[in-house]
Design a protein that fits this description.
503 residues; alpha/beta; Rossmann fold; 3 domains; six-stranded mixed β-sheet; 17 helices; 13 strands
């Protein structure tokens, strides 16, 4: 539909124009910095940054109900810039003109209710939000659409020329960064750093296919992160990890989509997300806080952050109930099937600390909780989710295991409705499924297959057949009919099929 086809009171707001007064704010010394220059840490004290809109209160000039209508009507527009995360332009990147927005199909991923059997097994009603259906098959595209749209804006306005974008990754970040950078060639080139042999073959193939320069280095993600931080400190490169505050803005769209999907009723909702580098949970909290400030939602949902027991520094930090005695301790991580969980020193930890405190204060009580789960549970719930019609990745299994743990421990009541994050597509982690089914998991993962969850192909080759078809050597006539009869009989016996009655 075209804007002139919409109600007169909505038409002026359908196509957003650049507005707002965005600044970087340091979480350490509170200093504000202009956004004309790409910053990742505070030049004064080295702490991480958040992007704030000093003119945010202007959004209250539009009543909440009208905002809801604006977002609903924008669903019907055919303008590419508003099809993705920038449907919520005023809340994400209000200074960016629409002709600078990079849209590759990200955002508005489906929310699928679990079937009755899976809900019964977990203990409450829940949905999966399948972020693996983003263009590069993970939620990272939300942040990249934001970060690269801003860089595109700087390029198109003449503030920067050629850009080399770099990131450290456990797989999904590199895939998203390389994809979005490739779309903006030749102005942007990309390089990614991966921990050697710690990324699945499927994930490794993605940045290679997008033309990025890929470096594998010894160590784990935390080591890669230190190298890209050094690169961004010492050289003219654009850092695309979640240390980049523009990434956080884009990932806030996850919260906005959930609010809109559930008609802005968040009173009885639970959002379950994996923590990893802590950018996602930061963005989810920030997004809901913004919607609450404007009155788009009346209540803040409960948020559960989940970590593997093999890498749980955030969980351990919040195990201390006394806020004044909490001390963050980075960890040496162990192997995890949820590979993005293998982060012992999340760069967004200062953001988490600030936003958890702010979130709970606005909610009037504890609304953010943290749980950790064993690798065995992650793998089993990952398999169970996919056996019940979902396309959950191992991180989706981590979230489902975390939800089950939260229910069992009484962290949340069974009267609530949960939205569980599956951050990537299941096919990215098919290798772990193979290891499970073949009972070949390395010892360090601490995963032992449950026989009832193993599923392997059955090769049907009747022993009495001397001739079977092969590529380039088809069977015909009676040999082919014998082949069909024999295979049919074996499959029917295996499936215990009942023969049709003869008419």
């Amino acid at each position: 539909m075209r804007p002139e086809h919409f109600p007169p009171d909505i038409q002026p707001h359908l196509i957003p124009r650049p507005a707002g007064q965005l600044i970087y704010r340091c979480l350490g010394c509170e200093t504000a910095f202009d956004i004309e220059k790409l910053l990742y840490t505070c030049p004064a004290c080295g702490q991480v940054l958040l992007i704030e809109d000093r003119d945010f209160e202007r959004l209250k000039e539009i009543p909440p109900e009208q905002w809801r209508q604006i977002f609903d009507y924008r669903r019907m527009l055919t303008l590419p810039a508003l099809k993705g995360i920038y449907r919520y332009h005023e809340f994400i990147g209000p200074i960016i003109p629409l002709n600078a927005v990079v849209y590759l199909g990200e955002g508005h991923t489906p929310v699928i209710e679990a079937n009755a059997g899976l809900q019964e097994a977990v203990g409450l009603r829940f949905y999966y939000k399948n972020d693996g259906q983003n263009p590069s098959a993970s939620f990272k595209d939300r942040g990249m659409a934001s970060a690269l749209s801003y860089i595109h804006f700087l390029i198109s306005s003449g503030k920067v020329s050629e850009v080399l974008a770099v990131c450290a990754s456990t797989g999904d970040t590199s895939a998203a960064a390389a994809l979005y950078a490739a779309y903006l060639r030749p102005h942007i080139k990309s390089a990614v750093l991966l921990p050697h042999k710690k990324v699945t073959p499927q994930q490794l193939s993605q940045p290679l296919g997008s033309g990025a320069r890929v470096f594998e280095i010894p160590g784990v993600f935390d080591d890669c992160m230190k190298v890209v931080e050094a690169l961004s400190d010492q050289y003219e490169v654009a850092l695309l990890n979640s240390k980049n505050a523009w990434r956080i803005l884009g990932q806030e769209s996850y919260s906005y989509e959930i609010a809109q999907e559930f008609e802005y009723d968040m009173a009885d909702k639970v959002i379950v997300v994996p923590i990893g580098n802590a950018g996602n949970i930061t963005a989810v909290m920030s997004g809901f806080i913004k919607f609450r400030r404007i009155g788009l939602i009346d209540d803040l949902p409960t948020i559960i952050g989940v970590q593997s027991a093999h890498a749980d520094p955030v969980y351990q930090y919040y195990q201390e109930p006394d806020e004044t005695r909490r001390r963050f301790v980075a960890q040496n991580v162990r192997a995890s099937v949820a590979q993005a969980a293998m982060i012992g020193n999340p760069v967004s930890m200062p953001r988490v600390i600030e936003l958890v405190k702010r979130y709970n204060e606005i909610a009037g009580g504890q609304k953010v909780h943290f749980v950790h789960v064993p690798e065995q549970a992650i793998m089993e719930w990952y398999l169970k989710a996919n056996r019940n019609g979902h396309i959950a990745c191992t991180h989706g299994g981590e979230c489902l295991a975390g939800l089950k743990t939260a229910v069992e421990k009484g962290v949340i009541g069974k009267n609530l409705t949960a939205i569980v994050d599956s951050t990537a597509h299941a096919l990215k982690f098919a290798g772990f499924q193979d290891l499970y089914f073949e009972n070949h998991f390395p010892e360090e993962f601490a995963v032992r297959p449950e026989p009832s969850l193993i599923n392997r192909p059955v090769y049907m080759h009747p022993g009495e057949l001397t001739q079977v078809p092969a590529p380039g050597r088809p069977l015909t006539g009676e040999p082919f009919e014998r082949y069909v009869r024999a295979i049919t009989r074996l499959i029917a016996e295996d499936l215990q099929l009942t023969r049709k009655a003869q008419s």
